[in-house]
C-alpha cells in the first residue's frame, strides 16, 4: 500500500501542514513578541497568549478549507479578543495568522500546489479569522468525524521558555485516528539539551537543534520529523520488563497544580524507581516517552479529583504513545473516552507506560491513593 492509499492519508497530510504553520507562528511569537501585554488571563485564571489564539486561527482556517464539514473541539474562543482589553492582542493575532497562512509553502508531503495555498489565503479578514477561532466551539461527542485542537499546550511552559506543543488530533466515533504534535522547543536528538525556562542555562542551548514534529496514524506507527525537514523516522518506546521497572524514569508536569507530585513520588517509590522525575510542560511528555527518552508518564489528580481533563490535552499524545508500543489509561486502568464531550469526564488522571509494565504501574497507583485516603478516586 502506498502512503496516499493508506487510511486517513489526507487527514494526516493536512494535519501536518496545519501544525507546521501554527508552530512557525508560535516560534516567531516567542522569538519576537512575548511580553506581559501579549497575554491575557482567562476566566479559569489560566494564561492565554497571542500565540494560542494565532495558532488556533491558523489551524482552524486550514481545516475549514480542506474539511469544511468537520467540527472542531478547540481550546480557545474569540470572546476575550472582542473586549477593549483584548483589542491589541486581536490585531496582533490577525496579523500573525495572515503572515503564517500566506508564508512560504512548508515542506509537507503531497500538498505543495499553488491552488491549495490560494484557497487558504482567501478568508483572511478579521471577522473571518475570529470566526475561524470559534469553529473550535464544538461540543464533541461519540459520533462521526471531529478534530481536537490545543493550539498551544503548556502555555505556562511557552511563557517561561520551556516546553510546549501544538497538538492536533483527528477523531472518528470517539476513537483517535490521527495525532500530530509540533514541539518547537524539543531537541531533535534526545541527547541534546532542551530549554527548560532557566534563562542562564537556556542561553547555551543551540536553537538550530530544536524543533520536532510527531505524527501517528492508528495502526501505522509513530514517527518523528523536524519542523524543517519532512524526512520521517519511526520511533518506539524503550522496552521495559517487570524486572527492569526499577530502572525506569518517569515524567510529570512542571505544575504541581496539574498533577500531584507527591502521589507520583510515592508511586515511583513503590515501584523501586530511584531516578528523579523529569518535569516538563505539555504533551511533550507523551512525545518524550514515545521516543524512549523516558518510560512512564504519570498525571494523578490533585485534591478531590474534581478537575475534568480536556480531550485536546491528551488526544494526539495518547495515539503517539500507543503507536510507539505503549498503553495509556486513566488511573483505574480504563481506556480514555474521547467521545464523552469536550472533557474526559468518564476518566480520572492519566497513566502512560509500556504495555509490559502498565499493569504494575496501575497497581502502585491504587496502593498510593489508598494510602493517601483517596481511594474514592478508584
Ligand atoms: N487542575 C488541573 N489539573 C490538570 N490539568 C490542568 C489543570 N488545570 C489546567 N490543566 C491543564 O494542564 C495543561 C498543561 O498540562 P501540563 O501541566 O502537562 O503542561 C493545560 O493546557 P494548556 O496549557 O493548553 O492550557 C490545562 O488544560
Ligand atoms: Mg490553556
Ligand atoms: Mg493544553
Ligand atoms: Mg492550550
TrEMBL record:
InterPro entries: DPNP, Inositol_monoP_metal-BS, Inositol_monoP_superfamily, Inositol_monophosphatase-like, Inositol_monophosphatase_CS. GO terms for molecular function: 3'(2'),5'-bisphosphate nucleotidase activity; metal ion binding. Keywords: Hydrolase, Magnesium, Metal-binding. Belongs to the inositol monophosphatase superfamily. It catalyses: adenosine 3',5'-bisphosphate + H2O = AMP + phosphate; adenosine 2',5'-bisphosphate + H2O = AMP + phosphate; 3'-phosphoadenylyl sulfate + H2O = adenosine 5'-phosphosulfate + phosphate. PANTHER family: 3'(2'),5'-BISPHOSPHATE NUCLEOTIDASE, PHOSPHATASE. Its cofactor is Mg(2+). This is 3'(2'),5'-bisphosphate nucleotidase. Mg(2+) binds at residues 75, 150, 152-153, 313. GO terms for biological process: phosphatidylinositol phosphate biosynthetic process; sulfate assimilation. It comes from Tilletiaria anomala (strain ATCC 24038 / CBS 436.72 / UBC 951). Its EC number is 3.1.3.7. SUPFAM superfamilies: Carbohydrate phosphatase (SSF56655).
Amino acid at each position: 500500500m502506498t502512503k496516499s492509499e493508506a487510511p486517513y492519508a489526507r487527514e494526516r497530510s493536512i494535519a501536518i501542514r496545519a501544525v507546521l504553520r501554527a508552530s512557525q507562528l508560535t516560534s516567531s511569537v516567542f522569538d519576537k513578541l512575548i511580553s506581559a501585554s501579549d497575554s491575557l488571563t482567562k476566566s479559569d485564571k489560566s494564561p492565554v497568549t497571542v500565540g494560542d489564539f494565532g495558532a488556533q486561527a491558523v489551524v482552524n482556517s486550514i481545516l475549514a478549507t480542506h474539511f469544511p464539514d468537520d467540527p472542531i473541539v478547540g481550546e480557545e474562543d474569540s470572546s476575550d479578543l472582542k473586549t477593549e482589553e483584548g483589542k491589541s492582542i486581536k490585531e496582533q493575532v490577525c496579523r500573525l495568522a495572515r503572515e503564517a497562512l500566506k508564508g512560504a509553502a512548508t515542506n509537507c508531503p503531497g500538498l505543495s500546489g499553488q491552488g491549495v495555498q490560494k484557497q487558504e489565503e482567501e478568508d483572511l479578514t478579521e471577522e473571518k479569522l475570529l470566526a475561524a477561532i470559534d469553529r473550535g466551539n464544538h461540543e464533541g461527542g461519540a459520533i462521526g468525524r471531529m478534530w481536537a485542537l490545543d493550539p498551544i499546550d503548556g502555555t505556562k511552559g511557552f511563557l517561561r521558555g520551556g516546553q510546549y506543543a501544538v497538538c492536533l488530533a483527528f477523531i472518528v466515533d470517539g476513537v483517535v485516528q490521527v495525532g500530530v504534535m509540533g514541539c518547537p522547543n524539543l531537541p531533535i536528538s534526545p541527547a541534546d539539551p532542551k530549554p527548560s525556562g532557566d534563562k542562564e542555562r537556556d542561553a547555551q542551548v543551540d536553537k538550530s537543534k530544536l524543533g520536532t514534529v510527531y505524527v501517528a496514524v492508528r495502526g501505522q506507527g509513530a514517527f518523528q520529523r523536524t519542523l524543517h525537514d519532512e524526512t520521517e523516522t519511526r520511533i518506539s518506546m524503550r522496552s521495559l520488563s517487570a524486572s527492569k521497572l526499577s530502572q525506569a524514569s518517569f515524567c510529570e508536569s512542571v505544575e504541581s497544580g496539574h498533577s500531584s507530585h507527591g502521589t507520583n513520588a510515592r508511586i515511583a517509590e513503590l515501584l523501586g524507581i530511584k531516578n528523579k522525575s523529569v518535569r516538563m510542560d505539555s504533551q511533550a511528555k507523551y512525545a518524550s516517552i514515545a521516543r524512549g527518552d523516558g518510560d512512564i508518564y504519570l498525571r494523578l489528580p490533585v485534591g478531590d479529583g474534581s478537575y475534568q481533563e480536556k480531550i485536546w490535552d491528551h488526544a494526539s499524545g495518547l495515539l503517539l504513545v500507543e503507536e510507539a508500543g505503549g498503553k495509556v489509561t486513566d488511573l483505574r486502568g480504563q481506556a480514555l473516552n474521547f467521545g464523552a464531550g469536550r472533557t474526559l469526564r468518564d476518566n480520572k488522571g492519566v497513566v502512560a507506560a509500556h504495555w509490559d509494565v502498565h499493569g504494575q504501574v496501575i497497581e502502585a497507583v491504587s496502593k498510593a491513593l489508598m494510602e493517601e485516603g483517596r481511594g474514592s478516586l478508584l
